[in-house]
Amino acid sequence: MHETSKRYIQQRKSIGFVPTMGALHKGHLSLFRRARDENDIVVASIFVNPIQFGPNEDYDRYPRDIEGDIAKLERESVDVLFLPDVKSIYPATFKTFVYVTDLSDKLCGAFRPNHFRGVTTVVNKLFNVVKPHKAYFGQKDYQQYLIIKRMVEDLNIDIEIILCPTIREEDGLAMSSRNSYLSSEERIAAKIIYKTLLEATNLIRSNLQPSDIKQRMLQMLLEENHVKEVQYAGIYDPESLDELDEIKRQCLVAIAIKIGETRLIDNFLVDV
Ligand code: AMP
Q1: Sign of CA dihedral 175, 117, 158, 22
Q2: With bands split at pLDDT 50, 70 and 90, how would you rate the model's confidence at 90?
Q3: Does domain 2-164 bear CATH number 3.40.50.1260?
Q4: Which residues of the chain form CATH 3.40.50.620?
Q5: How many CB atoms lie within 10 A of CB 48?
Q6: Torsions phi, psi of 235, nearest 5?
């Protein structure tokens, strides 16, 4: 990969990069298309990164479909698939981690210790190998995008980080590789996330206080029988990720819940 990218750079070709964990869906495809529009060369990586999963999380059963993924990459005219194995990313001698303080411990970070440390470490490594000019991330994982932007700025990494809109199923559920874990009843119940984000958006626009909006969000989510846990739900500052006391010009409405054993997240950025 390193040699391939060096060759493209010598030929003055721009490289757009989309890192993924595979089991590709239309959300991923939208990133490939954006990268295709804006670059000479599109590189995708598929790597299920063990160090971003907690000990009781789904690393072993994370969906994997490399044959199906390759067919999709070919259809989208992605030029290069980088498909490293775990040993080449983390050889026995590996000792270095990249950790963005503060932002990595909020929202999802509070429930997934070391998750974002795993993400920033692997993304930094992938950036060094792929050497892209631009890299594309989905808004569904807004916190991840924010943390990677912080890392790139703080470490003077010369890569433009681009945020792409969340692609949804017809009923509003954000596409996710993890949706395949849901039973048919859980899949129907999962609509409540999008409904709650819409309701919160309306309440923001009607000038309700964030604490009242949060109460309404919790109530809606917990009324749904399949919701086993609400990890967080509320209105946050899109830069600091702190919970807001008052509505600002731009608000992040974000939710993380467990439906059965499946953890799902989603968010809206709301301009007031
Ligand atoms: P993942 O394979 O889940 O690690 O995701 C790889 C990239 O695809 C990340 O930048 C995600 O934010 C992005 N992504 C995942 N789901 C969606 C979606 N429904 N819409 C847009 N981007 C997405």
Answers
A1: negative
A2: very high
A3: no
A4: 2-164
A5: 18
A6: -115, 125
Ligand 1 binding site (Cβ under 6 Å of any ligand atom): 20-21, 27-28, 30-31, 137-138, 140-141, 164, 166-167, 174-177
CA atoms within 13 A on the CB side of 106: 21
Q: From 25, 30, 31, give the residue whose CB has the most ligand 1 atoms within 8 Å, as the site to mutate.
A: 31
CATH (residue range 177-271): 3.30.1300.10
The pTM (predicted TM-score) of the whole model is 0.98
Give 186's pLDDT tier (boundaries 50, 70, 90).
very high
CB neighbour list of residue 75: distance below 8 Å, 6 or more residues apart: none
Mean pLDDT of the chain: 98
β-bridge mates for residue 228, sequence order: none
Q: What are phi and psi of 185, to 5 degrees?
A: -70, -40
